[in-house]
Amino acid sequence: MVNDAGGTAPGASQAAAGGSGGRRLALAAMVFTVAMVFVDQTIVSIAAPSITEELGLSSSGMQRVVNAYLLALAAFFALGGRLADIHGHRRMVVAGTFVFVVSSVLCGSVPSGDLAQTWLVLFRATQGLGAALVFPAALAVVVAVFPVDERGRALAVFYVLAGALTALGPLLGGWLTAWTWRAVFWVNLPVAVVALLLTAFAQFPDARRRERLDAPGAVLVATGLGLNVLGLQQASSWGWGSAATWACILGGLTVLAVFCRYELRTAQPLIRLRVFRDRAFTADTLVLFFATLAFVPVMFFASVYAQVSLSASPHQAALYVLYFFAGFGLAAQWGGRILDKRGARPAMRLGTALACAGFALWATRLTDLSAHDQWPYACLAGAGIGFLLSPASTDAVNRAIGASYGEVTGITQTVRNYAAAVGMAVFGTVLTHVTTDRVARTLTAKGTPEDAAHGLARGIAERVTGHPDDHVPTGDGPTATAMRHAIQDIRLDFAEANRWVFYGMAIALGVAYLCTLLHPGTRVTTPSGRDPVRTSEPVPAAAPRRTRRS
């Protein structure tokens, strides 16, 4: 069976997967393949203080290292999806894995000195490029080999296992950092070997589309996203009144507007924007955008908060972040079941509401400086994200009827990774500004002259991924004495700054809840083994279940 774009239809894909055993093997292969992508979203956050200290990076510099990976993912994800459609999913999985693992080895081999930050940013970006080639192809394989009425559970397993690997990242990062932070990059090499072996043995369809690649569209979207996030990221250094800040932000938005206009007019676009005419798809995408503003950044900010304000070791910080993933893992399976039985809207509403409440309550306890008092709220926030992530992603992909799954996963994952990069940039700016203001007030109250206090506060905020003790001047002068007396207050100042960040995450989830109200409540089903169709929600309990699978 061939669809209107020249690709393999869903039924044929599922048949080609070799039955339920073949589907499970394909799922296992793809989960292991994307393990590196998910682990790298958290493992580097744990190592951030050690990287900052050894290489002499500033806080904004370290955030650029983290964001280079996220931004490359966002900029090239749609391109990765289209390349997978044109050249085949298996080929892109293998090619992306090689790019990713070579970049990882180079990241771990960064030299000390002035070149360090540029080196890390460059090869973190190429890591992101490799991930952008791997992930849409892997996700499209899972979507293609499972029928629609099993897809919710399959993708829930995919995201739970991937989430478990993401949660493993902090633990692994804490253990490896105790040896050397460079190992957090080198660990991707053995994972890549296993992933390639599983991919070689897995049987799954590898259909290709005879279409040209939209190179101008790829350049426009990468340029627009890059400029926009660069402006948001540099606002803390350049200032919000800087012409350069607004030139990047507005210039990026202008290029993205040109990209949308171009895509609507070209015959074979990188992204078929007509899919946004589906109100449910638009609602799903908006929910994913606002939820991901918090989901990925929370790993970085929670880890650094634990190491600075709670004086935690990297391993202890990893356990702190695991509170969030414990809730995520428990709720993700339930979210998939709700999707299969009732559709995406109930799961998304429940998830956004729980996550909003969880982040808000978590924020209120950050200044207690006690991890023991925070774990219920961290779990609640994670559970909310777990409930909504798989349903929103799966419902959006299910609406790729008559289109390619690689293309639609490219759209949704581009939105998610762009949101993650924006969240890192915006929340990082908030953290730097609030930390600077509060630390300056603390130092002034302890007897430091106002001019000196502001300069010291700025230095601490820029090096906030290290411990405040590292910035105490030597000697017995009034400034050094004031700094030593202010250390505990500075830890509290940093916790207070993080409260603003976590309240911002709660607001993002509140907006995501409002976006769920746009969802019409329609579902995608496969009655009698035919092609997917949309039906109204809720589905009667006595509705006949499909007995034959194509």
Total strand segments: 2
Fourth-tier CATH superfamily name of the largest domain: MFS general substrate transporter like domains
Q: What is the beta-strand fraction?
A: under 5%
Rg from Cα = 23 Å
* General form: globular
How many individual helices?
18
Going by CATH, the architecture of the largest domain would be Up-down Bundle
SSE pattern, N- to C-terminal: HHHHHHHHHHHHHHHHHHEE
Topology of this structure?
Blueprint: H1 10-16, H2 19-55, H3 59-87, H4 89-108, H5 116-145, H6 148-179, H7 183-186, H8 188-201, H9 215-238, H10 243-265, H11 279-295, H12 297-308, H13 314-342, H14 344-365, H15 375-398, H16 405-445, H17 450-462, H18 478-516, E1 523-525, E2 533-535
Antiparallel strand pairs: 1-2
Give a short summary of the structure.
By secondary structure, the protein is an all-alpha fold.
Question: Please, could you describe this protein's structure?
Answer:
This protein is mostly helical. Helix content is 76%, strand content 1%. It has 2 domains: 417 residues, Growth Hormone, Chain: A (Up-down Bundle), CATH 1.20.1250.20; 56 residues. The protein contains 18 helices and 2 strands. A two-stranded antiparallel ribbon has the order 1-2. Helix 2 runs parallel beside helix 6 and helix 6 crosses helix 15. The N terminus and C terminus are likely disordered.
Q: What characteristics describe this protein?
A:
single chain, 550 residues, mainly alpha, Growth Hormone, Chain: A, 2 domains, two-stranded antiparallel ribbon, 2 strands, 76% helix, 1% strand, globular, disordered C terminus
